[in-house]
DUF6480 family protein
Amino acid sequence: MVYDPAENPDSARRGAIDPDPAVTPGLDKGGQVQIGDTPPESAQTSGLSKPEEPLHSRFPPTGVAALLAIVGVVIVFGVVIVGLVLMIL
């Protein structure tokens, strides 16, 4: 199929979205790109499909719980070490 701008004058101004591989320079038989060539421009989607959610500026509750658990374990170890040292003396 050969692109004919006379069939659709609007597309002639924009150019073909997916160029015909038979008439596109730089393509091998079957539409493969030759080594070292850049493929022809094709339809693309740019931008995000939906807006990104805003970043949260507060610390999550699970993080607070993890920090409290770590602090508790450190305190327990400290108490055990102090108790063992006092038993030796």
